[in-house]
Amino acid sequence: MYGPLYCVSWSFGLFTKLRPFITLGLFVASAGAASAGDGQHLWSGDWYLSVGAAGFSAPKFEGGKHNKLQWSPLVSIGRQGPGPRFSSRNDNPSFALIESDAFRIGIVGKFVPSRDSSDGHELRGLKKVKWGVEAGGFAEAYPTDWLRARVEVRQGIRAHSGVVADAAVDAFTDITPELRASAGPRMTLASTDYFDAYYGVNARESAASGLGVYKPGGGVKSVGFGGALTWKASQNWTTSTFLEYTRLTGPAADSSLVRERGDRNQLLIGISASYKFNFTMN
Q: Which of 115, 161, 172, 197 is the most exposed place for a label (fewest CB within 10 A)?
């Protein structure tokens, strides 16, 4: 059992990582309180909640050689209205604090599942990576009516202590009023602590797994390309089919886990469906 000193230390470390987001939350809360005098709150107005699921074939674990069928929930919430001109399944749950027709800036979060030997025999002997979250900010811009560029920068909490940055550019066009096609390049960068959690192999793990010792640095994790067809079946139902190709680079590609038991080439293909509920908050 963990003692009080450990709990205090862990709590202080978590507070330190969350401090920027706590500050932002207090700012948003104070803004909402300030508007209460007008009978309106920050949350007042018309909102939507979208829920659904995606089923796809993807590597068993990041850097793995073999694919398996998987699924993930899709949940998003936001204000009703025109909203962003484009969204991608790669976008993590986010909330815009500043937005206009040309750009959006706000906060973003991502759930990170755990990883252990049950995800693949190739991982036997390697330390378990706990589940956690990544929290940070995003910015996106529309240089033209048919092009969107988006960047997310997130700090890992619990699963790893690194920083991850995703960048994507998507061109999109409406084939019909209900059917949209989109595609574009992607790139991911990460810090040393991230790579150490997922791709590092220390001496003890090397002895237990048979993999070569590997101590990574930071850098570009992957580059790739993705595309999707999105069909708005009704006012509330949306379905899509998507494909993503990713090639691991730098510290990820150089890992003994990838070189000896995995594959630099990662392919994901799947379908999704979601339903949007509209509601009003006073």
A: 161
